[in-house]
Amino acid sequence: MKIYERLMTIDRRIIYAILLVVVTLPLVFPSVLKVTPMTPVEKLFTAVDNTPDDKALILDCSYAPQIKAEVEPMAIAVLRHAFKTRKKILVLSLYVEMIGLATRAINQVVEEFNSVAETYEDSLIYGRDYVFLGWQPPPIVPMLGMGESISNIYVVDYYGNQTDTLQIMQKVKNYNDISILVALSGSTIPISWVAYAQNRYGLRVGVGCTAVSGADFYTYYQTGQFTGLMVGMKGAAEYEELVEANHGVKGRRVASEAMLSLTYAHLIIMLFIVIGNIGFFLHRRRK
Amino acid sequence: MKKRIPLILIFVAGLLGVISFVIPHPSYQVYDEWMRNDLLRVLSAFAVVLALGSLLRVHFDKIRRKRRNWQYSWLLLVAFGGSAIIGLFGGVAADGILPTTVRSFSFDIQTLYENIVIPLASSMFALLAFFMASAAYRAFRVRSTEATLLLTAAFIVMIGVLPLGYSISKHLPAFVQWILNVPNVAAQRGIVLGIALGVVATSLKIILGIERAWLGGGE
After folding, report:
1. pTM of the full predicted structure?
2. Based on the domain organization, do A18 and A146 belong to the same domain?
3. Which residues are listed as membrane-spanning (chain B) (predicted)?
């Protein structure tokens, strides 16, 4: 076999094996790689940070287990940010299969804060500081309905409590009391929030999405329909960086730890593309 | 009659849905709110029942007729029944009437979800990275000017989005943002507008009864 043929026909098992090694090693021996936050993430961070005391924010955890690695760190970073700055937060999921992930993120961050809280005031109290509204099908119902009344749409929360009896809900009635909604998703759900809730009620929408969806969402970010944008694992790492740098929130930064793995994976893929193209050029020249 | 009633229903429902956005009068908005908040939820509850019934029927039928891979249908039915029972009677926070802990072993719905659904779904999706690497190596060839431009842009974005990009040049991430914000958005906006016009045209065809494929029956 000639050299160019070898370069063009590397066995896929070799590619898989090399990729496995370069992705796994940095995860086994994690180290946080410093990232520089970009403007779309900074805008989202500022919007959450500037939430007035009389308003709340909504976190829509509509991400499936498939994209958990990319989007869950975003949910955790936003929750840490909101809890550290004592913002009131309403969490929901638009699809049933995502409820478990939202529960997991809330439980983890609440546990982090409550384990170091010294007083009752410092602690995060369900119903006072946050509420998990759960799931209400179909998605268009909460998207439009919460513009009129959140308690009418979510009569009970995920745990069966009457929402209108919760302390947090006494001042949060509809979108007028919401500063921003952060939609975390790998699908077109954030666009639906813009199409229904923003167009009709003027709700501000911030987004966290997978790297694959990022290119689609820049259209909405550029027009200002999305206040801010976190794209992929890098976006999550940037938000983690901002939360730690501005508010001193400590905690495991999963997305930042994965940056090294992501860097090696990108470089290896690029290397293989270059090798394939060298073979292709040699082959063409020979012909 | 079998076709006329669904066609009338979709015409009326489609029209009412559209005009709610252009008639801000409170009386109509109250009606629109009822349609969205109550009627739609009742309809989706029916849809869930219909979907579950359909799923069970398909798999029972597969087992009865011993179709290809019928054994997996048993797996689905057992998982379906098990998770339904635990979910319905075990409570959302392991506080239901069904005990979901045996000594140190928990099998409440959240534990099942975190230890079965999440690892399985994540693993399946993680395999994509390997296929993508292999496919990129085989397919990304610089055969033309367009392919060269595409490859160059891809390389710049792939490096620029990484922390490495900032180490190479502090202007590189800003350049990547420009690529995403300007050339990418220009192309995306064209695609989005095309899709939107297509959706409007198809919706109108469905509302006016021109497009009838959704009725089934092969016509």
Report:
1. 0.90
2. no
3. 7-27, 39-60, 72-96, 116-137, 149-166, 186-208
